[in-house]
């Protein structure tokens, strides 16, 4: 039985077909074979994984009426299903919670496409026409025959297994936030004063961790403390909509990190590092699964501690018991405040999960990472993980929507998730 998660009709079929064709035309035939000056065989083309992560991102964007945090786990689902489909045939890495193996001569490219197609069709049946068109376009580049047929069959099995694994995982469950709105505790924020959004994320079953609270940090500074006042006064000065101390570069940083095209950035990594299809599938699955658990860990802390956002804290600073803070009832942040508590920052947690995963996979912090801002359209390059983490942490302060403590601790939690997960999942197969 398919479960539909979406809103309204899908975008026209031609939009995805044209976008897919454009992507294919710009992707080099990345793989270890590229180092030798030859393209990988179509049956094992790593570009298929990147193409289908783009299809997944476009489908999620069209079908899910939500914010980037609650869309993130859908990308993790698609990436992990493809990882199982590919590694079950290629045999280079340990599959995710699966012991099945496909025929060695099967097409791992067909398996990846079939797994993504099957999984996305299951969760988003309203997008079937677009997904079918994309799937047909992929298979048209893979030679017909037994390898293609066996690969596609195995990919569908991989998707079905993953869907079964994630049954009753807490998606969309009714989860309430029942802390009274006393000083220091979250309450709906202007301008919309919406309820706590997607509280269920904090109770969702993680993909990698044992439980949402596995890496729950200690509490944030109490409202009467000096660190609290330092945090609040910083965001009050730098995060104000009409700030006189925030520089144009800092404003650009705040806006840049509202939403990023991580699938495209990982595709760029795979091509430039000449990863084969197994390495490409592993890269996507490891990053997206760690980021999804970063969101879950952040929302667990939001539910547990429930700290108020800067806009509320600044408006009501006369109630926090701290002589080093002063109220400003007219204060507004640079960017709209999301409808959930301050501590922990989901953006910072997922950034730590991203850079932590890349660092573990690459062996050092020189991530050489190029990423585009979806909202702004500009692109940034980060040579080192620490520089990326720094900008994400600063961005939420400059935007006026998070305290620095919520960002730095969130980023640390993301790194802890990556460090723990990458020693247990997506690991190379031991050779005997």
Automatic annotation (TrEMBL):
One of its GO terms (molecular function) is peroxidase activity. Its EC number is 1.11.1.-. It comes from the Bacteria. The keyword Signal applies. This is Vanadium-dependent haloperoxidase. It is an enzyme of class 1 (oxidoreductase). The keyword DNA-binding does not apply. It comes from Streptomyces chilikensis. SUPFAM superfamilies: Acid phosphatase/Vanadium-dependent haloperoxidase (SSF48317). Keywords: Oxidoreductase, Peroxidase, Signal. Residues 1-31 form the signal peptide.
